[in-house]
Amino acid sequence: MLNKRVTEIMTESPIDTIERGLTTSLAASVMKDRARGCLVVVDSGKPIGIITERGILRRIVALNKQPEKILCKNIMSRPLKIIYPDNAVLEAIERMSKYNIKKLIVTENKELVGVLSVTDIIKSGQKIEDDALKKLARLYPICRPVDSEKPFT
Fold it and tell me: I need a labelling partner for 83 at 20 to 30 A (CA). Which of 10, 30, 46, 49 fits?
């Protein structure tokens, strides 16, 4: 598994995007309608940020802000954390762990070609080495390793 390349398991284009000047209310509707957990924010077609369901919950809903008045550019996460299609899945896991994120934007020649998520890695159905699995588990508080005898709770 860990010698697989990102391109083998990523979600490929077309990737759902939203322009930076549109509202987060629209972003939430698009995510709901298309059953997506995130949208890549673009400026003239170039990826510049990412909006996730979690981001909307934490930055808008939890603060009782009005999503119809907040633009995507104001709550998007940036800079984008990217990876290349030919990078190893292990490198993707390392980056996700390092930045405490669950999604990486896949680019080639500065063009958006896909998104790689923890879900994509898990759904790939391949064996994940214990060390890599522990790194992924750190991204989910409910699954934090506690000791070597019982690695997950």
Answer: 30
Q: CA-CA distances (angstroms) from residue 127 to 48, 116, 123?
A: 33, 17, 11
pTM for the model: 0.78
Cis peptide before 67 (omega within 30 of 0): no
Question: Which of 76, 89, 88 lies closest to 47, judged by CA?
Answer: 76
- Cβ distance 72 to 27 under 8 Å? yes
Instruction: Using alpha carbons, select from 92, 57, 60 the residue that is nearest to residue 74.
Output: 60
- Write the pLDDT tens digit of every residue in 58-79: 999 999 999 999 999 999 999 9
Give which of 52, 32, 58, 53 is closest to 40, Cα–Cα.
52
Q: Are strands 17-19 and 38-43 parallel, antiparallel or unpaired?
A: parallel
40 neighbors 17 (Cβ within 8 angstroms): yes
